Automatic annotation (TrEMBL):
The keyword Repeat does not apply. The keyword Transmembrane applies. Keywords: Membrane, Transmembrane, Transmembrane helix. This is DUF4199 domain-containing protein. The chain crosses the membrane at residues 6-29, 36-56, 76-96, 147-165.
Length: 170
């Protein structure tokens, strides 16, 4: 079983570590690093999945990879990225509560700046629910959101990359 997942472990762990590092570095550059870290995640997740599948195909499976193998290896890779990223971000926010406060303040400011647009499009109750959600936000909410936005695109990218790299023995 380890044969199937060795490359997934390597590139999943690498992707997760890079995501945590990017969150840490971006937090020095701006008060709310969450949005840019999501963009970075959209870059690192498919690259990590591709590398895990490519290494599995070329170095473990004699140049062949089935769709099922690709989905399995990709799943492990993007889940590791999501878990490590989520735990790392949660840990950073627990260690640096002022960073969490800055993120929360930034999200409230953006919400208030777009108040009229939100109310016009979605109604007052939607705005009030969003405001309440942001005021009750805790560090684990930010970490969970980041992890989910690694898993959802990770599944999509795994499907596409598995199809592209698929090569079965004749």
């Amino acid at each position: 079983m380890n044969k199937y997942f060795a490359s997934a472990y390597q590139f999943g762990i690498l992707g997760g570590i890079l995501s945590v590092i990017s969150f840490g570095l971006l937090s020095f550059l701006q008060p709310d690093p969450t949005n840019l870290n999501l963009v970075f995640g959209y870059l690192i997740t498919p690259i990590s999945i591709f590398m895990a599948l490519k290494f599995f195909k070329d170095y473990t499976n004699n140049g062949y990879i089935s769709f099922a193998e690709g989905m399995s290896v990709g799943f492990v890779a993007y889940m590791l990225i999501a878990i490590l990223s989520g735990l790392g971000i949660w840990f950073i926010l627990l260690i640096f509560p002022k960073l969490f406060e800055a993120i929360n303040k930034s999200k409230l400011q953006v919400l208030n700046e777009n108040r009229e647009t939100i109310i016009g499009q979605l109604g007052e109750p939607s705005f009030e629910n969003t405001l309440e959600s942001i005021t009750r936000m805790v560090p684990s909410d930010i970490a969970l959101n980041d992890a989910l936005w690694k898993i959802i695109p990770g599944l999509f990218f795994t499907i596409i990359i598995s199809i592209i790299l698929r090569k079965n023995p004749n």
